[in-house]
Amino acid sequence: MAIGWYLAVSALIFCIGAVGVMIRPNPLVILLCLELMLNAGNLALVAFSRMWGAADGQIFALFVLVVAACEVTVGLGLIVAIYRRQMPVNVDDLSELHG
Amino acid sequence: MSATTFGWLILLFPLLGTILIGLGFRRLSGTAAGWLGTLAIALAFASSVGALISLLGDSESHRELTSSLWNYAVTVGVDAKLSILVDPLSVFMVLIVSGVSTLIHIYSIAYMKSDRGYARYFAYLNYFVFSMLLLVLAGNFVLLIVGWAFVGAASYLLISFWYRRTTATSAGIKAFLINTFGDVGLILGTFFIFRKTGTLDFEKTFQLVPHVFAHNGTDLVAGCLLLLVGAFAKSAQVPLHTWLPDAMEGPTPVSALIHAATMVTAGVYLIARMHPLFEHAPTAADVGAIGGCATLLIAASIAIVQTDLKRVIAYSTMSQIGYMIMAVSVGAYSAGLFHLMTHSFFKALLFMAAGSLISAMGGEQSLDRMRGFRKAMPFTFICFVIGGLALSGLPPFSGWLSKDDILGYLDDRGGGFEILGIMGYVGALLTGIYTFRMIFRAFFGEPVEEARELEQGHLVHHDTPTNPQTGEVEDTDVGFPGPEHHIAERDWAMKVPMAMLALLALVGGVLQIPGVDHSITRFLAPTFADSRLAHIEPSTGADWTGLVIGAVIAIIGISIAYRIWVAKPGTSARLQARLPAVHTFLYNKWYFDEVIDFAVVRPVLWLGRFTSSTLERGLIGGGVTGGATGIVRAWSAAVRRAQTGFLRYYVAAMLLGIGCMALYFLIEAT
Amino acid sequence: MSAVLFFIAAIGVLTGAIGVVMLRNPFYSVLALVVHLIALAALFLLLRAEFVAAAQVVVYAGAVMVLYVFVVAYIGGADQPLHRPAGALKVLGPIFGLALAVELCIAMLGSALKGIGGKGAPYVFGFGTPRQIGQLFLTTYLLPFELASLLLMVAAVGAVVLARRRRGLEGTEEFEDQLVAAPRPAYTGTMAEVAGIRQGAGTTTEPDRQTEPIGAATGSKDRSSKGGW
Asked: Which terminus of chain A, N or C, has fewer Cβ atoms within 10 Å?
């Protein structure tokens, strides 16, 4: 298939992820949607790497993978800490950082 | 040493005195501060004598010497240097100032002995003498204005010397305000003149004035009138005179020095120094003469009904300065300055004697409570009489020769000035009346309790000191007069200066006896060489006619006073009952204070309050700063509402932003 | 053939994504994401990125998602309603997403990149193999590689720090309470000090003294009479 199709899929996944972040109140699900967006980026990177014939895009995608893994680790650690302190695991109620 | 070196020394000694006493007051115990201050002024007097001798050693045409210490600001258009001018006029003034100051310092050593602020007093007094000498020795407008302002400050410090008395501090502020008003006039006048001449130096200005200004031109008249404002404020002439009677709140030696002999004569000196300007603008000179004449009559009329001893003498000072201002405004320079000299002698003497009398009364100053001190205080009585006779102008006292010198000149010039001369004689009559009213009331008649106790040798002493004006109770700590009172009969430090001044008041007139010698006129001739009016000299016959008329008028005045207050007691009460309106008018000092309060003080206060409340608080505080902060606050409140803390809104905002950016780039790419 | 595979994988990807967003139970969302990731690995394979596909399955779907599963199990994702107080976002969210998708598609379609229309550069043997990736990692991208390993360590430490207990083991608080409630030895404490049995530090047992008011009876008599102001 032409590269364009892959990019279209990537765009769709990105937007679905964005909508998911905005709609769901559960932080776990928000993190999952963030993963969706990251994966969309990965797909675009790999598609372009195929287009140019250079493996640099794949290297970049691997790095994104690493970063996503770290981010998930820390994010889940935060959520567990919140849960432990009996605070509501709901993004709307965790709104103390306001001006 | 040259005269200018002496000039700098004259300035140096009092300055050192004030600095040393001011800085070392903790270490100066007892009367050391007093002796140090007196030594400083005595050295200044010695330097003045040195300057005189040195000046007399020079030939007549070389007697105007200037010396500049430092160029303060000499650049395009302005030449402000620290320069002094030593010429006969300044040496004359310096001798009087330093001489009388030395005597008053010696007097103060004893008079102020028990006061807690002893060292402070002498530091201030030395500072005053320094300022006055600076004023008189100034060689350009800059130092003149500096000296002028310093003198005003010293006057304030000394009037409010007993600073815990509210009457004293109010009087000090009043004096300072009116003096500052005069300072503004002086500085503006300087600008008016400087604008055309382009130089601040005296000698250069005087040379340029006839060329740069038109005779009686409006700008010169305006400048001279502004200078007159300064002179009138400093010399307490109508209408800027209201501060002088209140200035009697200061200690009596201060009144003697500042408000009789030296500071109030600064206006006379100013007009005499600026005589080329005034002669070139006769309108301003006429205003000065009329002002002086009005003052001498008004002040004399008020002095007749005053009951406070020091205030009688204060109004007398005002009146006599009126004579001097009148004299130097019409061109009788040497006569006016001669009267300045003799007046400083007998007025200082009168104040010193008044100080002694007030001490005998335990601080009480009202004439109503004083009677019959003749036997108790003979020395003070003699000093009062000598001073009073000199003031009234009885032969052969010095005041007779000087006052009638002025009046003779006025008569000789003729025209409108003759009327001024006649007014002067009327004033002389009033002078005799009020002077001897004071003396007869205080020393004749049935002795009061304080006098009787003093005859027994016991100086009265009040346990609870009170303010003589308001009667409120005080203590004798710092800021109030000390507990002890000193009279001349007991303290030699008071007796010696009074004796010397009495002697000078008696024989000082020999310097200028018409037909015999004209030493003062001759001495001052180099300064006034360029004056047309100074050369007008009445003939000896006219002079002696004037002198005889003056003597007769003085005798009439004294006898009227004798009749009303000694021969037929009760006459004054009857007169008061018959002319109540006149008495009230005179007793309230012609209502000048009330008029000034209504016309000047209240509008200024209203303006101040209005500016403070409406403009400052409302407009600037509320409008400008409040408005600016309000806008900022509203802005930040609006922006703050974006910080909700809701994560999902942030995400939505971010996505919206990304979408808009992508849209922009999309549109741009097409 | 590849087109068919593409569409199958694409449908799997999109279904997984929509499942993540729409399913109510978080556990089901995690499972949907796993499906999505495996389908995405298939797409990677179609793009000749072998190593990335393998890493995706092993690391992402294998390790990260397992971590997710553990956390969801611990927290117990209860069924929550989809739309909560964020009323405006109920409507605006999808709108923003749709707008973004439209824009991206337009950008793509209108793009001047010629390569998008084609199938990519000619295949070079060794493209996407672990050998090539490894070479690039250890030569051109050595620094990011090392930094990435540092980042992983930081993340691990951070996770431990965040999730640990604050006060050590449970059960220690009771011990502290016992200490406080124990009786004091006799004749100690503040009551003993007040009763005068025992001196405390810095106190006296004398009765209170009247303190003088400030300024009272301070007359001027005490000042030395050396010349003052």
From this structure: C
Q: Are residues A21 and B651, on separate chains, in Cβ contact within 8 Å?
A: yes
Beta-carbon separation of B655 and A25 below 8 A: no
Which residue is closest to B639 within chain A, CA to CA? A99
Q: How far is CA B647 from CA A92, B143, B651, in A?
A: 7, 75, 6
Residue ranges covered by each domain of chain B: 3-587, 593-669
pLDDT band, residue B401 (cuts 50/70/90): confident
Residues 115-134 of C with CB under 8 A from A: 115-124, 127-128, 132-133
| Residue among B27, B659, B670 minimizing CB distance to C100 | B659
- Of B141, B188, B57, B43, give the one whose Cα is nearest residue B101: B43
- Model ipTM value: 0.92
Instruction: Choose among B257, B325, B320, B318: nearest CA to B291.
Output: B325
| Rounded-to-integer distance, Cα B428 and Cα B435, Å | 10
Q: Which residue of B has its CA nearest to A27?
A: B647
Assess contact for B431 and B319: CB atoms under 8 A: yes
**Using a CB-CB distance cutoff of 8 angstroms, which residues of chain C are in contact with residue A77?**
158-163
Helix, strand, or coil (residue C43): helix
State how far residue C199 is from chain A, nearest Cα, in angstroms.
47
**For A10-28, how does the pLDDT look when each residue is reduced to its tens digit (9 = 90+)?**
999 999 999 998 888 888 9
For residue B652 the two structure tokens come to 């939505």
Q: Is residue C113 within 8 angstroms of chain B, CB to CB?
A: no
**CB–CB of B478 and C229 under 8 A?**
yes
pLDDT, tens digit, 9 for 90 and up, residues B51-76: 999 888 877 777 778 888 788 777 87
CATH of domain A3-84: 1.10.287.3510
pLDDT digits 0-9 by tens, B231-248 = 999 999 988 999 999 999
CA atoms within 13 A on the CB side of B269: 27
Residue type, C224: S
Q: Rounded mean pLDDT of chain B? A: 88
- Provide mean pLDDT across the span C27-36: 94
The Cα B217–Cα B213 span in angstroms is 6
User: Tens digit of pLDDT for each residue in B36-52?
Assistant: 999 999 999 999 999 99
Q: For residues B643-660, b (16+ Cβ closer than 10 Å) or e, as one string?
A: ebebbbbebbeebeeebe
Q: How many CB pairs under 8 A join B and C?
A: 58
